[in-house]
Design brief:
Number of helices: 3
Organism: Cyrtanthus mackenii
Keywords: ATP synthesis, CF(0), Chloroplast, Coiled coil, Hydrogen ion transport, Ion transport, Membrane, Plastid, Thylakoid, Transmembrane, Transmembrane helix, Transport
Structural class: mainly alpha
Strand content: under 5%
Family: Belongs to the ATPase B chain family.
Shape: rod-shaped
Distance between the termini: 182 Å
Membrane topology: Single-pass membrane protein
Protein name: ATP synthase CF0 B subunit subunit I
């Protein structure tokens, strides 16, 4: 490798009298070399560069078109979702209103049923009170009647002797006999 490098270095020292060689002066050779390289690149690379730029441009335009289509699809989906949301909200409002009216109906029905039950209980209470009053009155009447009967029997037993008893029985027999003759 050292021999190869030495051969290039030795070429730089050849006399430049009509021969071909390398110029090792950096300041003189750089702009020329760059302009030659750029010229060759532009001449030969122009088509490739145009193709690359066109391909890139087509990919960018394709990406933009795809993005626009996706955006349109997303906007359509958003509109459909908004329409469904409005429909669901209206349905929810309807259910809410129906629910509130159903609750109010149930509340009124419950109040009416409770009021009816309270009236029935009040009627049962009044009937029970009336029945208990009648029963108490009947018990008092029975007790008064029994006491009066016992008092009358006690009075009769104390006032009646056997002769008075005999006369009362005879008088009653006479009344029954007279009634029998009248019916014949």
């Amino acid at each position: 490798m050292k021999n190869l490098t030495d051969s290039f270095v030795s070429l730089g020292h050849w006399p430049s009298a009509g021969s071909f060689g390398f110029n090792t002066d950096i300041l003189a050779t750089n702009p020329i070399n760059l302009s030659v390289v750029l010229g060759v690149l532009i001449f030969f690379g122009k088509g490739v560069l145009n193709d690359l730029l066109d391909n890139r441009k087509q990919r960018i335009l394709s990406t933009i078109r795809n993005s626009e289509e996706l955006r349109r699809g997303a906007v359509e989906q958003l509109e459909r979702a908004r329409a469904r949301l409005r429909k669901v909200e209206m349905g929810a409002d309807e259910y809410r209103m129906n629910g509130y009216s159903e609750i109010e109906r149930e509340k009124v029905n419950l109040i009416n049923a409770t009021s009816y039950s309270l009236e029935q209980l009040e009627n049962y209470k009044n009937e029970t009170l009336h029945f208990e009053q009648q029963r108490a009155i009947n018990q008092v009447r029975q007790q008064v009647f029994q006491q009066a009967l016992q008092g009358a029997l006690g009075t009769l037993n104390s006032c009646l002797n056997s002769e008075l008893h005999f006369r009362t029985i005879s008088a009653n027999i006479g009344i029954l006999g007279a009634m029998e003759e009248i019916t014949d």
